[in-house]
Structure formats: structure tokens, C-alpha cells
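This section describes the prediction task in plain terms. A model, or a person checking by hand, is given the sequence of a single protein chain and must write out its three-dimensional structure as a string of C-alpha cells. No templates, partner chains or ligands are provided. The sample shown here is typical of the held-out split.
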Amino acid sequence: MATKRKQTEPPIVERIQTGVRMEKRLVKVLKALAEYHDISLGDLLEGICLHAFEGKSPFSKKSLQVIRDLKKVYGLDLTAIDSHRLLEKDGVQ
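The expected answer:
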């Protein structure tokens, strides 16, 4: 059982390296967004996941506008509807 910590105390975590494969343009947008916020890609992904796990939106209105702009720059036309339906050039799902 995890010990309860005060909300003012930063959590101590153990991070691991992963070998995750993601769509190329999506990664470009994520990297650019992390750079925009001056955080690492890992920190951005952790924040997105932690917000999603609580059913909260991870992005402010300003960040959503930045994302829309970055999607145009990198030609990312995928949407949530495409989630779990992507096929790679060689037919891998």
C-alpha cells in the first residue's frame, strides 16, 4: 500500500526507458509542443496520461491552438476517430 503524501510534496518516482512506436507526424507535433512548453517529451506524455486517467483535459485553450497550428505545420490530419485503426505501410496494425 502506498504511503499518503502531502499535496505540497513533489512525488518521488522511478522512470524507465520505453521502446514505444508512434505515428511519425504525431511524434513531431508532440516534440514541438514539449519544446513550446520547455519540458521534455516524457514529461509531456506523463502529464497527458495522468490527466486522461482522471478524465481531465490536459490542454488549455492556448495549448489547443498551438496544437492546431503544429498539426498544420507537420501535416497531421489524424483525429481521435483514427485511434486504434492505424495501419503501417507494410500492413502492420
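For orientation: Helices lie at 24-36, 41-53, 61-74.
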